[in-house]
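Appendix B, Record 12. Input sequence as logged:
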Amino acid sequence: MEELDPKQTSRAEAFELWMQAPMPMVTLFKTLDVTQAVRLSRRRGIKLNLLLCWCVGRAASRVEEFYTLPAGDKLIRYDRLAVDMVTALQGGGISTCDVPFSEDMEQFRRDYLALTARVRETGEPYDLSGTHMVIGTSALPWTEIDGAVNVYAGFYNNPFLIWGKYRKKFLRALLPVSFQFHHSQMDGGHAARFLENLQEEMRNL
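Logged structural output:
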């Protein structure tokens, strides 16, 4: 982790424009074809949410802007990514679990299963924000949603994705996704490229 002077980076103008804005977050909506992920989940007995989160990490790792996060008057540069998921607890309620992203899907799967089980059992969040740039996710797989907007105040600056239940259309499985990001971190073009990467990862599973 390294603190950067925003004025010495390509985000200098965006940082000056958006860091003090009262509503600095932007949300894009996209419907993804997740047919291959659904088939792989059923065929191999892998949780669908696990596959989606791994694809999020893969897609983000190909966009340089995901490795920096605006915080105060600095940009924090990270070398590693993690994918966070909201986790239901055994006794009710929710907590959060950061899973370190690995290009090795099997390693990510082991970490995902072990860490989410730990959070469910202990009720304590597993936080990697001090060492990893964390991408937030929240899944509502029991209900269809068209989109969602998260906290817009700027005190949680991490990029964040929300999705619900996928929809069946003919022989395809379609999943509307909301992607929220801080405008100081990236522009709409970077966010759109990430979503295109995400669709590509889904198709190439």
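Helices lie at 12-18, 35-44, 48-60, 105-122, 188-203.
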